[in-house]
Amino acid sequence: MKLLDVLIVGCGNIAGGFDANRPSSDLPLTHAGAFGRNPGFALAACVEPNDAKREAFMARWNIPTGFASLTQVLAANLRPKVVSICSPTAAHANDIQTALALKPRIIFCEKPVTMSAAETEHWVNTCQQSGVLLAVNHTRRWAPDVIRLKTMLDSGEWGSLRSLNAVYNKGILNNGGHMIDLVQYLAGPLTVLCAGVPVHDHWSDDPTVPALLSTDKGVPCSLNVAHSNDYAIFELELVTANGVLTMENGGMNWRVRRTIQSPYFQGYRALGPAVETVGEYALAMSSAVANLYGAVTRGEPLASDGTSALSAQRVCQKIREAAAAPQGTPI
């Protein structure tokens, strides 16, 4: 097996922190955790300006080399095949620019790629022109149960999709971007119909915004908000002709109710008892790095790339613009 060396930029929670104190038997939820478990990759180096955080990260993940900045990596003539960008969003543009100078085969970037759709489009195009693959961590596109659900929806197994009802918090670009991308993956392109009053529940520059949208087939989608100070929430309900499916706890759990003949009213159909199952979100990061390996070594398509991420960000940006516009302004 060809070994691909990995450079991780930023040593925070999604880089490896969420896995730092979890049992080694648990499925990885982070970049370092997933790359470290896959025999096709070697964790070669990391970048983190905080010395203590960098040293702790190197020790936890057995990374031999650490740098305070990407420019130091460039000066050291390190040429990793994979660059994972896990730095704060405000740093992504500069990090992508410097990462491209390292001439990797692929960049795996946290979302959002940048804070504006125009800037994200620039870097998506620049990566394409440079011949560097760009994967974006819209994680649920790699979850096996979400992939199976899309197949079932596309095949008509659940009948017509009637509506989608989503609840999220912690920013329209951050967690909202995950939700918009998930809905577009499952149901197709979205159009923004209207947006409600923004809620500033976490990020000063990224409010959580409610909205009403429609798919290209006219299926309505409501995007509802919660407050991140209360609890984390990421849930999606899909109402179909043959039942209702609900993703709960960000994909860690599912609740499914299929149609049955009503036990109370003859001739009527109703929803049967809920069947609760454990979701496969925890498999997503392992599936993601396997997909990255296949993309680099065998030319496999990426499940989540710059193009799909840009499409979701454009919808998020339109939601923000609609919320900021005077009432009655056409979208």
Question: What would you note in describing this structure?
Answer:
Helices cover 34% and strands 27% of the residues. It has nine helices and 17 strands. Strands 7, 8, 11, 12, 13, 14, 15, 16 and 17 form a nine-stranded mixed sheet that branches. A six-stranded parallel sheet has the order 3-2-1-4-5-6, sandwiched between helices. The model has no long low-confidence stretch (mean pLDDT 97). The chain has two domains: 4-110, NAD(P)-binding Rossmann-like Domain (Rossmann fold); 141-284 and 314-324, Dihydrodipicolinate Reductase, domain 2 (2-Layer Sandwich), CATH 3.30.360.10. By secondary structure, it is α/β, with parallel strands linked by helices. It is globular and about 75 Å long. The protein has helices at residues 31-37, 51-61, 70-75, 92-101, 117-130, 144-155, 171-187, 284-298, 306-324, and strands at residues 4-9, 41-47, 65-67, 82-85, 106-109, 133-136, 161-168, 190-195, 199-203, 206-208, 211-215, 220-225, 234-240, 243-248, 253-261, 269-271, 275-278. Helix 1 (31-37) crosses helix 8 (284-298) and helix 4 packs parallel to helix 5.
